Amino acid sequence: MKMTVIGTGYLGATHAACMAELGHEVLGVDLDAAKVASLAEGIVPFYEPGLQELLRKQVDSGLLSFTTSFADAAAFADLHFVCVGTPQKHGSMAADLTYVDGAFEALAPLLTRAAVLVGKSTVPVGTASRLTQRVAGLAPAGSTFDLAWSPEFLREGFAVEDTLHPDRIVVGTTSPVVEAVLREVYAEPLAEGTPMLITSLPTAELVKVAANSFLATKISFINAMAEVCEAAGADVTQLAEAIGHDARIGHRFLGAGLGFGGGCLPKDIRAFMARAGELGVDQAVGFLREVDSVNMRRRTRVVELTHELLDDRLIGRRIAVLGAAFKPNSDDVRDSPALNVAGQLQLQGGQVTVYDPKALEPAKAAFPTLGYADDLASTVAGAEIVLLLTEWPEFVALDPDLLAAMVAAPVIIDARNALDPARWRAAGWTYRSMGR
Ligand code: UDX
Fold it and tell me: Which of 126, 207, 254, 324 could disulfide-link to 240, CB 3.0 to 4.6 Å?
């Protein structure tokens, strides 16, 4: 099938490459000429495992190309996926819909043939129906289109796998045409047994924010338990292990530590609260405010622990920060808990040096005033405390004896509960973690 993918960020670039991998002819569209030029050369401008190889393969195969032109997009295909970002609006908890509105508004006047428009961006409930009116008003007289919403559930770090083998496909539409088209698009995953759920537009929009709210709540639940464990002298990792054996609870997303960040969970729960307020049901999601607060308190807790371990004398002390990405296997630093902690400590007078295997350049762009090092050895050289803030495998595999010989003082905060406390203590480290 021929299709366009509008917006080529983490979601769109992955979607475009994966659609080509499924055998479709894909045109990726983005207003950012530099991004389009890079993608057209087969170079992914961010780090996502497996995507680079896939993009190169599909650009070379001729199935995947890129453009900055909406006219090209409208001429190329009658199926359009919209994958642009919906960041948090400045000065508000709500989502900024500038890019989503812009994409549909740019495409609408160019729809000279019957078209299927499928939004994939995470949007406040009601957006799809509003956009249907908007596109109808802008489309040429007599043209027909169907506008559907199909939220995307991919995780960064597993984006290719999640797109090629999704655990479910949700489509908000009342049109049998859209359902038939998307069944053809996703023929391969459907043949593998992936369920496709057809819902109304508002249900599809809500599925996405409900899923992310649940995940955020699960993480904040265990982090709230970590606070209690700290006060009571209990161990939250053992507690999580024990409650997770109840199949109704499960072990996944019960990792207590520094909490969630990234380009999705934080802004999605806030946008959901803002939208629920507009709908007059803010009480229904009032608990998300607490979820957000518990999450932010974890960052403060690591800053406090650092003060405590440095005897409340932070100014000029050398702090090695391991990790800048919001989670391992990603170079995404949007709302990164690691950089938040690093920034707070630096602003309070600490001499902070940050190292990350993949996210150094994005981190420098976002927080240019922090100190950075290009390798682990120079990061920890002379450090009076080491903070493990993103659990990259290479940090988790660190040898406590070797590291002890490199630092000025063997003091570590394992903010992701990723290390073995007994082993680190046996190697002479003052070891602190979260809720243990
Ligand atoms: C999330 C959703 O998982 C995905 O379905 C949606 O499409 C986009 O948002 P992502 O932001 O890529 O995906 O990351 P995810 O793996 O969900 O992790 C989010 C954050 O939670 C990370 O900062 C991670 O470190 C943290 N986390 C996760 C925990 O603190 N504890 C856990 O047990 C799990």
Answer: 254
